[in-house]
Amino acid sequence: MTAIERPKKGLSYDQAGVDIEAGDRLVSQIKGTVARTHGPRVLGPHGGFAGLFRLDYNEALFQRNFKDPVLAACTDGVGTKLKIAIELGVLDTVGIDCVAMNVNDLIVQGAEPLFFLDYIGLHEQDPDATAKIVEGVAAGCEIAGCALIGGECAEMPDIYGPGEFDLVGFSVGVVELERAIDPLRIQEGDILIGIESSGVHSNGYSLVRAILKEQNADLNAVIPEAQLRVGEERTLGEVLLEPTRIYARPIVRLLAHYRVKKIVSMMSHITGGGLPGNLPRVLQDNMDAVIDRSAWSVPPIFDWLQQAGDVDEEEMFRVFNMGIGYVLAVRPTFAESVVKQLERDGEPAHIIGRIERGQGRVRWASDA
Fold first, then answer.
1. What is the pLDDT of residues 43-76, one digit of tens each?
2. Distance (Å) of CA 344 to CA 56, 141, 203, 324, 349
3. In three state form, how does the secondary structure of 52-116 look?
4. Which of 25, 50, 172, 181 is 20 to 30 A off residue 109, Cα-Cα?
5. Domains (ranges, CATH) in the chain?
6. Contact status, residue 109 vs residue 205, Cβ threshold 8 Å
7. Alpha-carbon Rg of the chain, whole angstroms?
8. Whole-prediction pTM value?
């Protein structure tokens, strides 16, 4: 056996690429940021091994106690949108994306988001930069109405290159079993309501980046044809980094408004796969979602991406949300009322189609 050649000076974790002291500084630095998201249900000190969250107690503190609670959980990440954020050095918004990608999935089941955890894998610990990422996560939790009760930040210089990081989230919510959304309630004639997206959200960025590379596009340039709203003057990078819209609070409020009548028969978060890929996930095999593509205005950023990349229109709808980030199926007599409630809550919404007999797929009204 070959003898081990010992180094002249003992190796340390810091020499191996992991700065424990920087990690400790980060924990202290983000304490106040994380605490902002806490309510009376969160227990235990900051920085513990696990976060504690009381599911329900004390009628005086909460509006209602659950009779038959069901937990809902999901996990998702921001994806390659991070590449653009890293290139531009904008780290304080991708945390909102991370929360959105999780809680928007959670509420599809009718669940109320309770708490959130994040995971950041990075090349090396820069407490100031990482704190900006966590600030974005905390901001997203405040928008969603959930508590950030823990997370993990791992230095792995052998996996992530200098300046690189990955961001993933985990969300847990609760729904009363009787109130859980059951797609079996979908009926022929139900009306489809689409809530507008805030832009590209957090899907399709591998294609976005391929288009940018093909065009040698300048992320710092103001491109009027790519603005989200008329009269804007933002750079292409700012438009592409617009945070994913979080639908949690308005959807939770909408469902709470109809405590007896179950007027919502289905919901869908429109992520990768677009309308054609996500609606069938919650459709019965004998029902189709018939969508009128003229019912809303597609944000200009999608038109710019399509022209810049010479992307087929069907491919655009298969990859991107195309301006609709969330869809509900509701009983016809309540459709107008639901649209008005969502709009009062600051969520631009449109009647975009209806449920018809079919084969569990999306059809365009022009093809029906």
1. 566 555 666 666 665 544 444 567 788 889 999 9
2. 29, 22, 28, 18, 10
3. EECCCCCCCCCCCCCCCEEEEEEEEECCCHHHHHHHHCCCCCHHHHHHHHHHHHHHHHCCEEEEE
4. 50
5. 20-179 (3.30.1330.10), 183-367 (3.90.650.10)
6. no
7. 23
8. 0.87
